[in-house]
Amino acid sequence: FDSQLMEEGLAELCPEETSLANSSGDPKILEAVISKHAMSPDPKTRRNAAIVMVSIIKRVPAVVAEKCVEIQSCFTELVADSDSVTQNFASMGVSLVFQVSPPETRTLLVNNLVGVLTAGRGAKKQKLAADTKLFDGDVLGRDPAGNKIETYRHLCSMAHDVGGGSDLVYKFINLFNEKALLNSMSGAALGLQEISKIAQEELKPLLPKLVPKLFRMMHDPSPAVAEGMELFWASLVDDPKDVVTRFFPGICEELLNHLTSNLWRSRQSSAAALTSLVPGRRWLELSPYFVRMWDLCFRVMDDIKETVRLEAISLATTLKRTTVRLCESSESGVPEVVLPVLLPKLASPVKEVKAISLQVLHHLVKFSNPDVLRGHMVAISSHLLEALSGLENTTLNYIEQHAERVGIDKDELDNLRIQAANSSMVGDMLDRLSGSCDQTNIESFCLKMQTLLKSGFGTNTRAGTCKFLSSVILRMRHDMKPFSRKLLKTLVTSSRASPPAVVRAYSGTFAILAKFSSESAVSKTLDIILENVQSDEAREQRFAGVFLLDLCRLASDVFVASRDRILPPVFVLMHHTEEKKVAELFSSIWAEGAPSDAAALRLYHAEIVDLCSSHLDSDSWHTRSAAARAVVSVVKKARKSDFKLPFEHSARLSAQLALKLNGRYWKGVESVVEALALMGGDLALATLLKCLKRKKLQLATIDALALTTSMIAAGAKEQQTALRDLLQELANPSADRDEDEDENEDSMKGAAKVKEKAAKLLSQLDEEE
Is the distance from CB of 675 to CB of 668 less than 8 angstroms? Predict the structure, then answer.
């Protein structure tokens, strides 16, 4: 020891003492140093206290024996001091106290050090004076004058200036106390490092408590703390790998308990420690803790502090690699343990949690034993399908909301969204899972699919459910028959108000399932579809048309079996000119589903006439007009194929058509005029003569008569004469007839067309005579 340095230290602490040699044995000096100077806010005083205590221990060991616990506590605090001289002397002191202490006290000394390290017990709080330096450097920044905010006086002044008052001061003091506690723990580690080689027997029973805490604190965010713990670890442990394996359960419990601690540094150090602990471990070691590791890791990934979140993401990546490694090595039990934790996280609002869960699930589905997947197939597939919409880029939702404004077709956008979802990682997993369905899980699978079809949220989820169900149906085929009735009904009833893209997805699955369903199940569901066909709403008609078209294309045998119920309404609705998409849709069904026009009319003319008759009595002028156009088509196709409608059908239609021409004008009535003219007969001619007298029907009536001059020639002489007189009057109107009428330009053009066509019809009649 440097005697001169020690003499100077004693002189500064105790000026009344002139010689260290004469006063070393005085208990009062030691008591003063311990109680007053060791915890002084002045760094120089603390340094002198360390020097003096080391000197006393070296010179008068007997004095120390009575106060070895208190002296060790002082050294433990001083060993973490910022002054290097203080640290060196305090480290010597810890070792010297242990060496000179009685054997019965050594265990107590070690226990105290371990207590400070593991639980912070015995950490002394430094007395605060006005000039006490609480924080080093620019931890709290600088005041407006550019001075560092580091002393207690300066902190109180700044808190008063910003209006924080005493509450703000107490918060900073609390931070200072936490820092002091951390310093005490670092000091305890350095002290234990000093005595580890000579106190192996005393430390041995404390290893189960010491090793887990030390392992965690080696990963502390503070480099100084971590370095101190690593030095102690190196001096304490000869074979780190063997020690970690031996105390693995205790380490896991320590890290998992602190992973959700109130202190951010504990959470961060636990995450970092787990990241280094987990790799390379066997499933036998990890299995009791693996669920908690994943669960707590997901929680910390949403931590309020960024550094903790980043460390948690590193831990999640490590757990992901470990899970994949264990699955690839065919470790039994891994999927059963991990799946219940991962599946709910697919709906997490934290994108990192969602991404990690998805990646791990993909590897589990790809590499796990098929028998294991079979047991979890329903749970995995349902969560994946529900996540399809949530995993979609939010930009697409924004585009959908503004599609009309920017000129994007919503239907095309939905198709693109569905294609993107089906080609994603989730789509790949669903394709793999479709092969895991068998007799053991088909019932629960169908029940879950029924629920998703009814209440699935989002276009991607509902369309993806249909695609997945279709894959399973094609694999299971007739094994689906016991469950098909409810699924068929759900597919029809749950898609009625859906977007077109979703309706097409449901209709495709419906057609595939109908191939493997009973006739009664298909028939009852077809009744629901045909009810929508008979609706006056174009949306419902379009919905039903999509189902019928897919049934025709994908399940032609089912369509043919019910063709007598499907084709008649299809024939009528394909003449719906007000809704072009509806007409095109049903025209496609007729073109692909009817054997031929001639054969279809011969087979179903009675049903078609019945439908036309009922539609002519509809309150909707759209429906009446479509029915009239259907009658026109029936007559033309029948004449073309040399087929004549039975008299009772033609007579009934003629009477209904004539009745519809009485009363007010309605939009589309021109179709009724044409239909009646094609039907022919005395009633038709008599009704058309009345129509020639109605200004709004004159043009349509002349056009219709021009198509059926044979009907005029077959009519009674009186009707022919009356017709010619009316046509003469229309072709050669008197000059003063409309002199007083206030006609607009459109009316004048219409009158000119009537005049021209009336004259043309007269010429045609004269030529035929």
Answer: no
